[in-house]
Every structure is written in C-alpha cells, then in structure tokens.
Design brief:
seven-stranded mixed β-sheet, two-stranded antiparallel ribbon
Length: 279
C-alpha cells in the first residue's frame, strides 16, 4: 500500500468509529508513526509504498484513536500559541479557546515587572506562554495535582521558561500579592460529566468537575483571592458556555469591579474579566 492508500484506509476506519476530522487524524498518526515532523511532509510521498514494518506502528495508533483515546495523547504533544508542549493523561488537554484567554490576559499586563499567577495550571501552557512573553515578570503557577505539576515542569524545562510551580489548593501559601491572575478551573457540573465526549474522559476528572453547579471552585477562588490582589489587579477566568451571567454576578457580589464577560472567537461568552475589589 502507498502512503495515500494507507491514509485513505485509516481515514475510513476512523470515520466508521465516530472520529471527527478522520482524514486529519489519520495524517497526523501516520506522520507520527513514520517519524515525520509535519503531516504535510506526507504530501510529498503519496505514491511511496510502505513496508509492513512501517505500517505496523500505525495499526495500534489508529485502533486506539478509534476507541476514543485523544489524538494529543497518542502523539504525546499539543500545539499551543505556536509552541509544542508535551500532553498526556496527567493533565487536561489545552483547548484552542484557552489560547484566546492568554491573549486577553497578555493585553491586561501594564507593568513588565508584574507578578502573575496561573491557578490550576495543568500542563502549564498558560504560565509558560506568559512567562516567555513577559521575561521581566514573575510567574507562579499552582495545581493540586503533583502529576500535573510534574508535566508542567517538564514543559517549562523544554521551553526554558522561568515559572515557579507550587503544589497548592488554588493559592500558594503566604501573603504574596499579584497583579494578574489567570485561571482555567474545572467548571463542568458533576452531573454532566458522564455525558461528555469519550475523548474528554481521558482527561483527569479533577480537571473537569466543578461541583454541583460547576462554579464551586471558581467561587472559592474569587472569595479567597481578594486579599492577595494588588490594587487594580486583573482577574481573567475561562468558564462554561452558559455560565457568564452567574459568574459575573458572584464576582460583583464579592466586590470585584469592572466585571464583564468576553466572547470567544466563535461568539460564545467564554471568559470573564474583573478588577480587584477596592480596599
């Protein structure tokens, strides 16, 4: 079978097993199996016959993808904000909308020497990206999961990003104050977890479960964060598609100022921003 025939065969199998973007997935998996850096490299070899030894690793990859294992876990990497990060079952797979969260947070930075906090860092992509974009800033990232923090530290080492990682329940210990806080916390109501896409079930449950109404962790952060914010500090949150009104209301009730929701590129109210409460 040629490269093109193998892609077509894998595409058919994946499509039959309910994988979205089956052709794209097939190309990524074959490129990975052949050790190609880019799937587009395959386009130069469509007519090249593949030996059975070359095709063997692809069979297991395609079978696993057909069973719902995320593409990022099979490749071992994910692209985020123009960089490649390690991705596996230790932390939530970064979503494309989170790239916009980083853009919004970046725009809120007014002082190059800002102290930045990424709460619930997971694989570390937010903290690492902000650290690389703001070399004079001090960036701290927290997570309750030692496994996630280990993954984040590996990613930081790969990109030589000076991020301080702290195992903590939301906030690092002490009384340090921050100029910018960014958080993509669990926001899915517990009752909705069983109905999520099969790929999502490969993410850690602790990175998804937001409690009974999906907002338990967000509300707890907003409450305990107030004394740890510098005057006029900015808070940026990523939230569920139907949570903006409730999140804005709870932040306002806690004294935050300039509270507003922001739509993502597809038009969903995916983010909420706020300014620190007045002292």
């Amino acid at each position: 079978m040629t490269v093109l025939e193998v892609i077509q065969s894998a595409t058919g199998y994946l499509a039959k097993n309910g994988v979205d973007d089956a052709r794209l997935n097939a190309e990524h998996l074959l490129a990975h199996a052949l050790g190609k850096k880019k799937r587009l490299d395959l386009y130069l070899e469509f007519d090249r016959p593949l030996s059975d030894a070359e095709r063997a690793p692809l069979r297991d990859l395609v079978r696993s993808r057909g069973q719902g294992v995320p593409l990022q876990h099979l490749l071992g990497t994910v692209e985020f904000h123009g960089r490649t990060f390690k991705s596996d079952a230790r932390a939530l797979i970064p979503r494309p909308e989170t790239e916009q969260l980083v853009e919004l947070a970046q725009a809120a930075i007014q002082n190059p020497n800002s102290k930045i906090l990424d709460v619930g860092t997971g694989s570390g992509v937010i903290a690492i990206t902000l650290a690389l974009q703001n070399p004079a800033a001090t960036v701290t990232a927290t997570d309750l999961s030692p496994a996630a923090l280990a993954l984040a530290a590996e990613n930081a080492a790969t990109h030589n990003a000076p991020v301080r990682f702290v195992e903590a329940d939301l906030l690092p210990p002490g009384d340090e104050r921050f100029h910018l806080v960014v958080a993509n916390l669990p926001y899915i109501p517990a009752a909705d977890l069983p109905g999520l896409a099969r790929e999502v079930h490969h993410d850690p449950a602790s990175a998804l479960d937001g409690g009974a109404d999906g907002l338990e962790i967000i509300q707890r952060l907003a409450d305990i964060l107030r004394p740890r914010l510098e005057p006029d500090a900015a808070l940026w949150l990523e939230i569920g598609h139907d949570q903006s009104d409730r999140v804005c209301a709870l932040l306002t009730a806690l004294g935050y100022r300039d509270v507003a929701s922001v739509r993502d590129y597809p038009g969903i109210e995916r983010f909420v921003r706020a300014t620190a409460p007045a002292l």
